[in-house]
Specification:
alpha+beta, Glutamine Phosphoribosylpyrophosphate, subunit 1, domain 1, Rossmann fold, 6-stranded antiparallel β-sheet
Length: about 625
Amino acid sequence: MCGIAGFFGQRPISPNARQLMLAALASRGPDARHENAWTDGLTVSPTQSATSALLHARLAIRDPRAIADQPMFSEDGQVALCYNGEVYGWESDAEALRSKGHVFHTHSDTEFILNAYLEWGFPALLQHLRGMFALTILDRRTQKVFLARDRMGLKPLIYGQRADGFAFGSTVRAVLPWLPEDEREFNPEAIDAYLAHRYIPAPRTIFTNLQRLENAHYLIYDLQTGKLEKARYWSMPQASGDTAACSQAEVLSELREAVAMRTVADRPVGIFLSGGIDSSAIASILAETGHQDLASFTATFSDKRFDESLEAAQIAATLGLVNHAIAISGSIADIFDKIVADLDEPFADPSSIPTWLLARETVKHVTVVLGGDGGDEIFAGYKRHPKHLRTLWRRHLRLPFPATESATGKGWRRLADELSLPWEEAYTLRFSGFSPAQRRHLGGGKQLRKSVWWRAADTHPDAPIEQLLACDFANTLPEYILRKADLCSMAHGLEMRAPLLDHRWLEKLARVAPEERFTTPAKHLLEPAMRRLQALALFEQKKKGFNPPLTEWLHGDLHSRINGMGQRLQRLSNGLLRAEAIDALADNYFSGSHFLAEQMLQLTILDTSLQQLDALRKRQA
């Protein structure tokens, strides 16, 4: 697991800019940092400008020796790899490569990927990668650069293209110094998308001239022509009713393999454990396969509505796992700016704050954690799934106009907004920040360019439930759930692994009969893997959210940040947002409209993030 960045082109990039790029990656790679920079094919020193460079900050998980550091070059120096992630189960393919004459000096997955490219090329290489990755391969022989993001989107990849070159990085802040100062404008579409969805969906970023590569996509950049090609290389398989259906035993066997693979590391491994089904299933598999030595980590909240520490302690005790209960502090005044910075660009999942705090404490014990991310997306476990399915009757019914602007977006205006959208797009309103009517109000009544900024699903299944999941897999899973997991864990140099998002297991899961996969209550398919926990009746427990004390924070630690926020956001958004509308919303909230708490946090994060990014974009590189 690492942080990566780099650029190729004709424009000389200063040593200071390269140092700023590397510095932005520091927390992602605390164990080693390296730069390989050159101009006209000749290596330059760290004090000289360069037209091309590969930058890497390493968190050493497999083979922590310096020989496994990056950028990693082929024996002849013609091919270089800059890679972030972790791939699993590659050892048998490595043996096949050895039999073909490829030499391995390490036991790192980095060297496997490099040799795999040399043997199979690109994009064929990707079919041999099982896990999470964002990678860049420079091939001087073909004068091409190959980049790819993993199938689920566990690892991020930001890029920018100009007439005189191309750049990439793990974060927006790592690529920003490469952009000329007059090309660092905020993207108004991204600001509106953030208001709509609480994050900025791919391929946009907060900056007009930087993009985010979509999950399961790759890029090919031609160094000679400057041409950039983008393609999708994998899509979530659709449920199948054919005779090749998988049994429950077969699919759970694949999951056990996926979990086992993710325990392999040269650093200590643990697990995030809540009282829910997803992490409990993984913990159960770990216990039954002899991994009781792995410690578990649980966030505890003073508000018992959201606290699952007692349930987690029971689960850990039943399975024979050590459990560390980590209290989530009610005070964030001193760390709010740091958390917002670590979230890279405007990002307003309220649970990102406790996730960041949990990761900060967990890394004091282990360097790798397994988590239950993805369970709700693959088994339709969210409340929004059945709720939206109940509106299927109106699929072909649409209002010819949206609602008028509204400060709260509630009542008939919310219904009118929903009915003005196609059924699939209206699904986004089940998981939104500000409604279209509210966004029109914040903008002074201006017409919205788009009601929804989600990208189109990569697949178009027939079953309505799978249509919703296809939207999740293209949007909220990679760009909300997994972005949070990556940014909050890597902020502390902690690697987070997600067995439930193993693509081989998902390909088999798609062949399970829909009535076995989509159950009420959800996830019953996992029950045989959790037999030791049967007495705890986990499937009968009410699902709890991972929610922080927003009201306490907004009335306490964050309250002073509200003053002047309207004027600041009007200026930073270049007039897209109206100061008086924002100030009126704040007045409504503090006058008792506490249902606006998440939206107030969303504006507070936007204000803080844009102030930070505004300072960074004005910094000379």
